Every structure is written in structure tokens, then in C-alpha cells.
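Bench notes, afternoon.
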Amino acid sequence: MFLLKRAACLRGLLTLAFAFVAMPVHASLDYRQALEIALELDPESAAGRLEAEALEAGAVADSQWADPMLKFGVANLPTDSFAFDEQPMTQKLVGISQQLPRGDSARLTGERGLLRAEATHAQVADRELRLVLAVSETFLDLSAQVERRQLLLQSREWLEQLVDYDRTRLATGEVQSQRLLQSQLALARLDDRIRAVEGDIDRKRGELTRWIGEAAWQPVDTRLPAWPDTRAWLEAQRLPVPPESVDGHPALGAAEALVAAEARNVALAHEAYKPQWKVELSYGQREPTPLSDGADFASALVSVDLPLFRTNRQDQRLAAARARESAGILQRQNLLQRLHGGLNGAAAAAESLEARRSLYQRDLLPTAEATADALLQGYAANTADLDAVITARMEAIEAQVAALQLDYDYYRALARIRYYLAGAVPGGGK
């Protein structure tokens, strides 16, 4: 009877040995669907686009002349009688005045508004890239945890077989109770590890809820994205990558547009040194009086302001505009350095992870699997101890878990590269 049970246990172990392969998770939510939902639901991007539209509309309005002023009233009306035909200078007046822009300030103001709108559009594009990166990293982390749980559940089946086998051997007196307690303790520890992984899965789903709502709690498709364009770019590069690699990034485009807008502020500050003109036309109607025939009057006036005291106004505004332009140039340079450094860091991480993935696929995984299989065959031939078989199989599982984590870490590094290469790598890569 014991031999039959032992044979059944061995058959179960052999069956499980061939089952330790990463199993795909068939799910309703995959990586691309998560990105589509996040981009569709993102309120910040929608608000940014509306802000850009507002800036464009405001730029058109700001580039126009001021509205003309219409005036009408009474001049020189005698207060003793309030009669219109008593004094020859009494008039009923109507007029119109137009204030002209100072120099070329209207055009410059409109261009400044359009540049700020352009910067806002670029900031929205950068926001969407950062959103894609955040969702990608979180989704990849979630997928890695789901796959890790699957591997640990398979490992648990092995430990359950071990506990059952030790219980049988204890009943026949082949082992002491200590051995059964050790195997049960190993199973309990593994259960705790599985619970911890499930907690990590729930936390990652909670993070995804921020961007995709209740869809984060659906089963997930853990297949890795292909991203052939990014992988081809990485294979063609040598570290360090040149700074020109990030020239097309929308964050840099936003910074450049803001610098150009500050340049328009400098030009506007120069325009403030020019006089501002105002033209006024008026017509005065008079009534005949004993001393006058009541001829009507027409008037034309031109007024101009004189920016004579420049030290504390125009000079200071020009200095402020130049300082803001210089600050914008330095901020753009700092952004370029950060993007360039981030790209080099992500590329270096991806290359290192790819080398480790190759090592696992070429040496570590085959060696661990071959060791486990050899010990299992030795156990079938009564030349190896079951403890050694279980230890080897657990080491093979740990190697698979490590290889799995390397795969997802590698693709997280690729996701960062795709963010930094927004202008060079097509955004729609699968």
C-alpha cells in the first residue's frame, strides 16, 4: 500500500514538474486598454487643452486696438437760466476718440499670447506622456505581481504534496514528526508570502484606480508589450546617448515657447519707450443768439503721452523682462540636462537588465531546471533524497520568479525610454 501511495505521489510530482511554466492570464483588461482609459478620463489634460484655447482666444483679443470712445454732452451751458440760446458758446457736443497702440505693442501682445498657448499645448502633451509612463509602470508592476502569485501557487502545490508525503511516511514510522512540522512550516511561510503578494496586487490596483477607475479591479492580461521601435533604438545606441536625442520632447517645446514669450515681453518693454497717441474728433451744435448766428463747431485733437521719466518705470520693466527671459533660458537648459540624464539612466538600466535576462535564459534557468529534473529522476531511481528534489525545485521556482521580475523591470526601463524619446519613437508602438 505504501509503495502505491509513493508511486502516486511521485507521479504527482512529475506532473507538477512539467507544469512549472509561466501561464498566460486571459483577461479583459490589457496594457493598451488601460492607457486608452487613462487618457480618456484624465481631467488635467482636458483642463490644459481648454486653457490653451482660452489663451489663443485671448491672444486674438489682445492684438486688437482699443475700442473707440464715444462722448456726448453739453458745454458752456449758463447756470442762471440753463438756456441753450442765451450764450453764443453754449454747445451740444458729440465726439469720438481712438487711442492707438504704443508702437508695435498690439502685435507683440498677440504673439505673446499665442506662444503661451503653444506652451500650454506642449505641456498637455508632456502631461499625457507622463500619464502614459505612470500607467505603464504601475500596470507592469501589477502584471509582475500577478505572474509571481501564479508561480508561488504552483510552488504551493509542491509543498502540499510534500506535506502529504511526509504525513504518510510519519504514519509508517519512516520519519519523525519534526520533519512533518518543518514541511508544514515551509507551507505556512509560503502561504504568508502569497498573501503578501496578493496585498501588493491590491495596492497596485488601488494606484491604477486613480487613472482608470473601477477597471483597475478587472482581471488583467499580463502579456508584455512588444515595443519593437524602442528596442531597435536601444540596440542601435552606445552610451552615453547624445543630448539631441531628447530635442523633440514636448516639455522642451513648452520651455522654448515660454522663452519666446518672454522675448516678446522684452520687445514690449522696448515699445514702452515710444509715445502713445490718441486722436479725437468732436462736433458742437449751437443755437442762434442775439450776439451770434449759431454756427456749429468742429474739433480735431491729437494727444500724446511723453515717457520722459524712465528710470523707475520703463528701465525697471525692461530689466525685469530681460531677467525673466534669461531665467527661462536657464530653466530650459536645466530641463534639457534632466531629460538627457534620465534618458541615459533609463538606457543604461535597460542594457543591464537585458544582459541579466540573457544570462538567466542562457544559463541560470536551464541549469536550475536541469538540476531539478536530474534530482527528480534520481529520486525515481532511489538514488536521491526527496528533500533534495524539493529544494532543487524550489530553487528553480525562485530562479523563474527572479527572471520574471527582470522581464518586467526591463520593460519598465523601456517605458521610461519611451517617455524621454517622445519626439523620436512613435507613441503608438505595441
